[in-house]
Automatic annotation (TrEMBL):
It comes from Teichococcus globiformis. This is Quinone oxidoreductase family protein. It comes from the Bacteria. InterPro entries: ADH-like_C, ADH-like_N, ER, GroES-like_sf, NAD(P)-bd_dom_sf, QOR-like, Quin_OxRdtase/zeta-crystal_CS. The keyword Oxidoreductase applies.
Length: 325
């Protein structure tokens, strides 16, 4: 038997159902993976609510997991039964005890990284990698702003950016989360609503402002984020936790200093298998070196994924959350 969390219609967490699903044999270019742990990410909420479009309904949620290969297709040469693997941003469907997926969407896990850690870091960690190393490649001496600094991506970004020689300004929603962000590398922590972000950034940078802002919050922080940038700065909007950013008059970018605006996704940055492997390898390296520690701060049984979604949307989680089949 194989079970999964599926939705038959969009809506709240109550629409998530634990049910038996078929488990087909892998096709020629696929592998069958038995999950040891499944990652929880805010993108799962977007798919559940309908903000992001699903291929069809009913659908199994989830974008990230780790486990062991139980079968390989006839044409698969780089993987064997028994290999430990992980993936993120494969076709949706990770909230399952096991699944098949294309072999070029998985990567081998190195010794020393267990399933729970892998499932708690693949999507978030590879997102941090492409944001810091490719979208805007941070340099030693840069001062950067990371929104949601106590979240899964935020905690990884704070640590990694410090390792790369940056001064990190983080935003969080509570004093408790401020302490967590500081413990993970944030030099300055601000709370939107209590702090005037542009004014505090101006104070921290002695008027220089920032070369980049990484914003996963969306609607509530977009305008303030633009006002934190130096001329020619880059606004990286990569999430919508507070709702989608409204349509933008691009002349605003000119008025605020010839700014750059991008809306990147991990799917694009890892679409080629070589880029996927390079991104994951860079992540594994900083984790194994100890420069970045993965904080799996919450675990839920996979069958209770609805409770995990409620906690995530209520901002009651910090770091990574893992679902255990």
């Amino acid at each position: 038997m194989n079970h999964a969390i599926r939705i038959h219609e969009h809506g709240g967490p109550e629409k998530m159902v634990w049910e038996e699903v078929p488990l087909p044999a892998p096709k020629a270019d696929e592998v069958l993976v038995r999950h040891g742990a499944v990652g929880l990410n805010y993108i799962d909420v977007y798919f559940r609510t309908g903000l992001y479009k699903l291929p069809a309904l009913p659908a199994t949620l989830g974008m990230e997991a780790a486990g062991r290969i139980e079968a390989v297709g006839a044409d698969v040469q780089d993987f064997a039964v028994g290999d430990r693997v992980a993936y993120a941003m494969a076709p949706i469907g990770a909230y399952a005890e096991a699944r098949t997926l294309k072999a070029d969407r998985v990567v081998k896990l190195p010794d020393g990284i267990d399933d729970a850690t892998a499932a708690g870091m693949m999507l978030q960690g590879m997102t941090a990698q492409y944001l810091l190393r490719r979208t805007y490649a941070v340099k030693p001496g840069d001062t950067i702003l990371v929104h949601a600094a106590a979240g899964g991506v935020g905690l990884i970004m704070c640590q990694w950016a410090k390792q790369l020689g940056c001064t990190v300004i983080g935003t969080v929603s509570t004093p408790e989360k401020a302490a967590l962000a500081q413990a993970n590398g944030a030099d300055h922590v601000l709370i939107p609503g209590q702090d005037d972000l542009p004014a505090r950034v101006k104070e921290i940078t002695a008027g220089a402002m920032l070369p980049v802002v990484y914003d996963s919050v969306g609607k509530d922080t977009f305008t303030a984020s633009l006002d934190c940038l130096a001329p020619l700065g880059m606004m990286v909007s990569y999430g919508n936790a507070s709702g989608p950013v409204p349509p933008v008059d691009i002349s605003v970018l000119a008025a605020k200093g010839s700014l750059f605006l991008t809306r990147p996704t991990l799917a694009t940055y890892t679409a080629k298998h070589g880029d996927l492997v390079a991104t994951a390898t860079d992540l594994f390296s900083v984790v194994q070196s100890g420069a970045v520690k993965i904080n799996v701060n919450q675990t839920f049984p996979l069958r209770d994924a609805a409770e995990a979604h409620r906690a995530l949307e209520a901002r009651k989680t910090t770091g990574s959350t893992v679902l255990l089949p």
